[in-house]
Structure formats: structure tokens, C-alpha cells
């Protein structure tokens, strides 16, 4: 009988693979999850993004043209004296300036020159750094005022550099001639060539001697469009022209013209030197208590952990582990493993002679802190017990590739700071939330702020002639975190943990930063000193910044503030690992091929046993390890990958992670100001 396969049952093949059956079902309309949208092509997405950018630019340009006009907010104009005898307050007396509101500390009004006029809020900048910074952050236009036949002085050069570091507004250069004598054209060309070295955007120098020059200056001022600065264009800001303190209900009323972005009445606002405040009312809009942004950081909240100890990772957990290492070492014979010929070491007299020779060399080779060969060399004496002094340090096979848990042994102050799981997304959402504000930019604004009992005294300490500015805070910008800012040192060498003043966007803070290398690795080497013209990263605890901002660094010397460096916010990340390195150095007093006997690195046998697993390296790029101790005075045998040289220096690198401490506090007005 033949086999007939055609009569055999054949089932339908299942060709769907491993796909689930519910994939073929139609999705429900009300099903939870992301909404289904039609996919757009790359060209459509690019056109949509370009259209959004174009609309934003047109809206910003429209608002910029309104600034200074009859229907728009006045231009904030800062008058900066750049020559020795330039008189900024007397500059305004030349024009027929008419204040709009009498009694304001910083009035706005109309500047008239001939048939031209322009609405401005003028501010004569004195020769002080703090007022220069306050006006520079809020000004639309900076007038560089020169006196005829006088060059740019040191103060003017420093002021221009400082304004460039925080974001230079649109600048207009003016050469005034109080006597009425015309300014020669050759002199104007020389001024322009000199100024364009620092400010290439300044294309023209305006003379100011006759009435025609006054009219030309007002016309030029009225048609000059303010320059947008990235770090404050998405943030509401306002120059406070006047304020009224109401002690009865603990409020203060501030007046001014809102600029930048919309103001949300639920957000927190900050005023440099005074603090962060809630809004009680803004142009009749009253915030809801449930929708207020949380004010998490408050003055004095972290006083209990100012001096908290930092428990860094430890290599050996207890002294019992040291004893166990010692016992295990006694059971192992390392002489046969390394092929070391030590027939003469059985003679104790020779060991004593070598020890005496090493001690004589130690007297000659004195350790001097100023003459250390390596910047991270650890200076110690023979009485130091290194296994106790350096318990928090560890050895790394490779600084770049060896693993290090970033959440290991965090200090107590890190329980108070905030880590953003996705900072880019959080920042984008915070900036987008600003578009829902109730107060339009360009409007005259009256804001009522809630203040505490202690804040009332602070408002009474404001010195005369100071420019107060208000900035709106994005959500989460009152949370403490770790800011990592770039730092380029323009002054003398500065040490880490030295107290300096920074102007970080709208924040004025005293900090004690940890300087570290600017690398792309996961671990960053701690810098004890930052030399002149050396770049670095400054890590410190401060309120978060949702957008990048410029950072200016100052140092107080003999009661005066000196501008020492510039930078910007790089990351907002408490997980940045700043690793401190120390180097133990020793002297090879006897070499045999690749083997050597080293002294002056340790002074007892127990320290050698404790650190014997850490690798060695030399000044001449050799690598090695500890073999065994010799005697009880800290001598040991070492083996290297190449022939050891007696004039070389044997080194051991040890590392520990360091953390910024809670030593940041805001700048405030003093009683004697």
C-alpha cells in the first residue's frame, strides 16, 4: 500500500510570529495613555519649528520697538562715566528731562532734544561695583560717557569688562564737551577705534557740544533698539522705581514697568539683597493659595548642619581587618614568587646598616612644603599613623575607568538638597509655564509682596541711590542643589574653599566653592589652587537655576571688592564627583633590576600592610606594587614594570570624594551702608 500524503490533515500556518493577538484589535477611543497623532515628516517639523521661531522674533521685535515710545514702557538708560572727570549726574542736566511721576526714587520721564523726544528711566552710575551690577542687569541701553580729550580710565575698562561678563546691553558712546567747543573728527575716530577693541558693536561715537548734537543724540537714542539677552528674556524683571512698606499688614508695594516675560502671580519673586517673596496682588490679580509655587528654601533653615561631618568611603572598615591582613601576610612566602635573591638579608647586621643609611638619607632629604615636586604631595612626619589619618582614602587602578558609586557615603547635608531626575525636561516645563502669566510685559505694574517681621528692617536699610531690581523665579528655583559653574581666573591664584562673592544671574551669593577640573569624565580632580588664566569648575550649594546664566566672581581684599573671574552655569547636578587626590612619595635607596627598596613613604610596618594593595608609580612613568615590608621602620620592597633607577621618586596616589558644604548665604544690605 502506498502512502498518500494528500489525504493527510494540514493545519493553517501561524505566520504572525510572536506578536500578541490584541495588537490586531482597534484601539479604544477613551483608552488611557498617549494620544494618537498623525506623524509629521521631517520637512513639516522643520517648517513648524522655523515658523515658531519667526513668530517669537517678530513679537519680541514689536515689543522692542515700543520701548521708549509714547505707548510703550520707557527705556532704562544707565550712564557710565568712562573717563576720569566725566560727570554722569550732570549729563542729565543738559537735557530738558521731565519726570512723569513726582516723588519716585528713580523717576521715568521724557528726554527732549530739539524736535525729538524719548521716554527713558535714567540712572547715573557711580563708581561702585554693586550699583554698576544692579543697573547693568536691568538696563536697556548703556551710555559710555567720555570727556573731551580724556581717554578710557582703569575704572571704565573694568566696568566694561564686568558688564560684558553679565551681558552687555546695547551701548552708545558719547564724547561730551562742557565748554561748547566742537569735538574734532579725528578725535572721534580715535575713540571709536579704541572702544571697538572691547565693543565691536559700537559703530559710531556721538559728540555732545552744541544743540544740534543734543538733538542728534536724542534721535539716536530713540531709534536704538535694546538688545535681547538670553538669560533674562524668558524671565519677568522690573526696575523698582519706588516702594512703600506697610508694617501693619506685613506687605510692601513696589512700582515699575514689567519687562521680559509675563508675570505669573503664583510664582515667587526675588529682589537681590532682600530675599524671595510671595505675591499678594499684582495689578488687581490675586493668587490662589493652592496654586502658589512652593517656597522651600528659607533663611536659617540649614543652620543645624553647617558643620556636618563628611563620611567619605573607606578602604578598610576596621582595625580587625588590618590584623587579618597582617596574619595572612605572615603565611605567604613572597620571596619565591618574585625571584628576589636575598641570601644576604639573613644577616641582621646588614639590615641594620641599611636602616642606618636610610635614616642618614632621611636627614638630608627634608620635606619642605614650598619645594614639593608634586602639587598633591601629602606632607607628614614620622609620628603620623597613616592608616588612621587616611582611612577615608582609597586607591584606584585607573582614575578615569575605575568604578565609583556616586551615591556612596553621602554627607548629611545632601539630605536637604534636591536632585533633578531629568533637568532638561524640568527646565523646559518651567519656562513654558511662564507663558500663562497674567501680567503682560511692558505694562506699568504695582505689585504687593508679602514680607515677614524681620524683612521690614531690611527694607529700611536700603542705601540712597541704589537700584532695586525684581526678577521672577521659575518653579523649583528655590530648591537647594549643587551648581557647577565654569570659572576663568583673571586675577591672582585663588584657593578652593576660599570665600568669594558671585553674581549668578539675579542671585548675589557668598560661597566657598570646590574647584575641580573641567573634563568630560565621570570623576573630576579636585584643584587646591586655580592659577592665573586657568579654567576650572566651581561647585557649590545654592538655589537651582532653571536656565543658564553668567557668573561673575569677586574677592574681598582689605575691605574692597575686586573682579577676579568670569564664567557661566554649566550643570545643575549634585552627582558630580569631585575627587581629591593626595600623593605619598618615597625614595628608592637600593635598586636591583626591576626591584627596589623604598624608604620615607611609610614609617611603620602596619601602614605598609594597610596600603600594600594600592599600586605604585614613579616620576619616570614606571608602574609597580609593594612586595613586602623590611623591618619595622617603614622600609619595603617594590617591583616595577621596568628597570628601577635610584634617582627616581616612588609615588602612591590615594583618592577620596569631597563634597561642597552648606556655606552659601545671600548678600544683604548692612546696617552701616
From TrEMBL:
- Name its GO BP terms in alphabetical order: endonucleolytic cleavage of tricistronic rRNA transcript (SSU-rRNA, 5.8S rRNA, LSU-rRNA); maturation of SSU-rRNA from tricistronic rRNA transcript (SSU-rRNA, 5.8S rRNA, LSU-rRNA)
Ribosome biogenesis protein BMS1/TSR1 C-terminal domain: from which residue to which, for each copy? Answer: 377-658
Keyword terms, alphabetized? Coiled coil
User: Biased-composition ranges for Basic residues?
Assistant: 1-18
Listed Pfam families = AARP2CN, RIBIOP_C
Kindly indicate where the leader peptide sits in this chain. Answer: none
Q: Where is the composition biased (Basic and acidic residues)?
A: 40-56
In which domain of life is the source organism classified? Eukaryota
The reply to whether Glycoprotein figures as a keyword in the UniProt entry is: no
Domain AARP2CN span(s) in chain numbering: 213-289
* GO MF entries: GTP binding; GTPase activity; U3 snoRNA binding
Residues covered by region (Disordered): 1-56
Which PANTHER family does this entry report, sorted A to Z? PRE-RRNA-PROCESSING PROTEIN TSR1 HOMOLOG, RIBOSOME BIOGENESIS PROTEIN
Q: Which family does it belong to?
A: Belongs to the TRAFAC class translation factor GTPase superfamily. Bms1-like GTPase family. TSR1 subfamily.
Q: Return the protein name.
A: Pre-rRNA-processing protein
Amino acid at each position: 500500500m502506498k502512502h498518500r500524503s494528500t489525504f493527510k490533515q494540514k493545519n493553517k500556518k501561524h505566520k504572525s510570529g510572536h506578536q500578541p493577538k490584541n495588537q490586531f484589535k482597534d484601539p479604544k477611543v477613551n483608552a488611557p495613555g498617549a494620544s494618537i497623532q498623525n506623524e509629521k515628516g521631517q520637512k513639516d517639523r522643520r517648517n513648524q519649528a522655523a515658523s515658531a521661531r519667526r513668530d517669537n522674533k517678530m513679537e519680541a521685535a514689536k515689543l522692542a520697538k515700543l520701548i521708549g515710545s509714547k505707548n510703550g514702557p520707557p527705556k532704562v538708560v544707565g550712564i557710565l562715566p568712562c573717563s576720569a572727570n566725566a560727570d554722569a549726574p550732570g549729563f542729565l542736566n543738559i537735557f530738558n528731562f521731565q519726570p512723569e511721576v513726582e516723588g519716585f526714587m528713580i523717576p521715568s520721564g521724557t528726554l527732549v532734544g530739539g524736535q525729538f523726544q524719548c521716554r527713558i528711566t535714567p540712572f547715573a552710575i557711580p563708581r561702585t561695583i554693586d550699583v554698576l551690577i544692579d543697573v547693568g542687569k536691568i538696563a536697556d541701553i548703556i551710555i559710555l560717557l567720555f570727556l573731551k580729550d580724556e581717554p578710557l580710565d582703569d575704572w571704565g575698562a573694568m566696568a566694561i569688562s564686568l558688564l560684558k561678563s553679565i551681558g552687555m546691553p546695547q551701548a552708545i558712546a558719547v564724547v561730551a564737551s562742557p565748554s561748547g567747543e566742537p569735538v574734532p573728527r579725528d578725535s572721534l575716530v580715535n575713540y571709536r577705534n579704541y572702544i571697538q577693541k572691547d565693543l565691536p558693536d559700537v559703530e559710531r561715537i556721538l559728540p555732545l557740544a552744541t544743540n544740534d548734537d543734543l538733538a542728534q543724540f536724542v534721535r539716536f537714542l530713540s531709534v536704538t533698539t535694546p538688545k535681547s539677552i538670553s538669560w533674562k528674556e524668558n524671565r519677568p524683571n522690573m526696575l523698582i522705581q519706588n516702594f512703600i512698606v506697610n508694617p501693619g499688614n506685613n506687605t510692601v508695594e513696589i512700582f515699575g514697568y514689567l519687562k521680559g516675560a509675563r508675570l505669573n502671580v503664583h510664582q515667587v519673586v526675588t529682589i537681590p539683597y532682600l530675599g524671595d517673596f510671595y505675591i499678594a496682588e499684582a495689578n488687581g490679580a490675586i493668587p490662589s493659595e493652592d496654586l502658589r509655587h512652593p517656597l522651600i528654601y528659607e533663611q536659617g533653615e540649614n543652620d543645624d548642619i553647617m558643620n556636618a561631618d563628611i563620611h567619605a568611603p573607606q578602604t578598610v572598615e576596621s582595625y580587625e581587618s588590618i590584623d587579618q591582613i597582617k596574619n595572612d601576610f605572615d603565611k605567604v612566602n613572597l620571596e619565591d614568587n618574585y625571584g628576589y635573591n636575598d641570601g644576604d638579608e639573613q644577616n641582621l647586621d646588614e639590615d641594620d646598616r641599611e636602616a642606618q643609611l636610610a635614616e642618614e638619607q632621611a636627614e638630608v632629604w627634608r620635606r619642605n612644603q614650598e619645594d614639593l615636586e608634586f602639587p598633591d604631595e601629602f606632607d607628614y612626619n614620622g609620628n603620623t599613623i597613616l592608616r588612621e589619618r587616611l582611612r577615608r582614602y582609597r586607591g584606584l587602578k585607573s582614575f578615569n575607568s575605575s568604578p565609583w558609586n556616586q551615591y556612596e557615603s553621602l554627607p548629611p547635608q545632601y539630605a536637604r538638597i534636591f536632585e533633578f531626575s531629568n533637568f532638561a525636561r524640568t527646565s523646559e516645563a518651567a519656562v513654558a509655564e511662564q507663558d500663562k502669566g497674567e501680567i503682560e510685559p511692558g505694562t506699568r505694574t504695582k505689585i504687593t509682596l508679602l514680607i515677614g517681621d524681620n524683612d521690614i528692617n531690611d527694607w529700611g536699610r536700603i542705601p540712597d541711590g541704589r537700584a532695586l531690581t525684581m526678577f521672577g523665579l521659575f518653579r523649583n528655583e528655590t530648591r537647594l542643589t549643587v551648581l557647577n559653574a565654569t570659572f576663568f581666573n583673571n586675577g591672582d591664584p585663588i584657593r578652593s574653599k576660599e570665600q568669594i562673592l558671585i553674581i549668578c544671574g539675579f542671585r548675589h551669593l557668598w560661597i566657598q566653592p570646590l574647584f575641580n577640573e573641567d573634563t568630560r569624565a565621570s570623576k573630576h580632580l579636585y584643584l587646591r589652587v586655580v592659577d592665573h588664566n586657568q579654567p576650572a569648575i566651581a561647585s557649590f550649594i545654592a538655589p537651582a537655576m532653571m536656565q543658564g546664566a553668567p557668573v561673575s566672581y569677586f574677592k574681598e581684599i582689605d575691605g574692597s571688592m575686586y573682579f577676579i573671574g568670569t564664567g557661566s552655569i554649566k550643570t545643575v547636578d549634585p552627582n558630580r564627583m569631585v575627587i581629591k587626590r593626595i600623593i605619598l612619595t618615597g625614595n628608592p635607596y637600593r635598586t636591583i633590576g626591576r626591584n627596589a627598596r623604598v624608604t620615607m613613604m611609610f614609617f611603620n610596618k602596619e601602614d605598609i600592610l594597610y596600603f600594600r594593595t594600592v599600586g605604585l608609580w614613579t616620576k619616570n612613568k614606571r608602574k609597580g606594587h609593594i612586595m613586602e615590608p623590611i623591618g619595622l621602620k617603614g622600609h619595603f620592597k617594590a617591583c616595577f614594570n621596568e628597570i628601577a633607577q635610584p634617582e627616581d621618586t616612588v609615588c602612591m596616589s590615594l583618592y577620596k570624594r569631597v563634597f561642597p558644604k552648606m556655606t552659601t548665604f545671600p548678600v544683604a544690605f548692612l546696617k552701616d551702608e
